[in-house]
Specification:
Layout (H helix, E strand, L loop, with lengths): L1 H17 L7 E8 L8 E8 L5 E7 L5 E10 L2 E7 L2 E3 L4 E4 L5 E5 L3 H4 L3 E8 L4 E9 L20
Amino acid sequence: MRSLLTTLLPAIGLIALTGCEKAPLYVDKATIRLSPNPETPSAGYFTVHGGSDPVTLRDVTSEAAIRVEMHDSVMKNGMMSMQRLDSVDIPAKSVVKFEPGGRHLMIWKVNPGIAATGKVTLTFIFSNGDRILVDAAVQKTGEAAPKDNGMGNMGNMTH
């Protein structure tokens, strides 16, 4: 009996510990769709995967751009418009998408030299202190864009 317990206790401990692992907070599928007019903002899209604990996405920055802002597309008085977001809640173990026709980034004056490399590094800043760096694939004017969910040309939206 004693040898059976000696054999089983470590295995039971390992099984118990596997349930304690925390789900990681991470960002993927980051893309930047460059504006055909360098004087107007480009758009950024990505997906945040919530970890074990809820957090808030407080900011997104990039050394390759003058300014980056989070926005949401909203219907207001029968017209689609954009509204700036100061932060976005990321519930535990959730998936929050920034995509055409919804939440997205507005990115002003992307450095053309960096964009020409095909990627731009974005820094995601969360309320728990995490700073996650992600390389966003650059989509040049005329390249296939992410699915737009039937929202059409966002360039015609009011700001």
